[in-house]
Design brief:
This protein has about 80 residues and is low in regular secondary structure. It contains one helix and no strands. About 10% of the residues lie in helices and about 0% in strands. It has a domain of about 35 residues.
Length: about 80
Amino acid sequence: MDAPDIAEVESGGGGLPGSPWTPNPSSSPTGNPADMPDPPSGWGETPSDPPGAGVGSGLGPRDSSAQQASVTLGDYGFGKSPYQS
């Protein structure tokens, strides 16, 4: 299975995530995830940007998976990253 493209992640109610970056904060009235309502309007439209160096949430799973798959064990070393530009 390929990693998802963030732009293609389906979200909403019925057990789906609330947005590509967040779970749905709504609760199912019956306890069945299929009965979960849509998230509040505007929920999770902007991903958070975690502190620190790097691209953070700006790099989607498809892109990060491709980068990680291209690296071999010999590419890692103390104090260096194969992802630095």
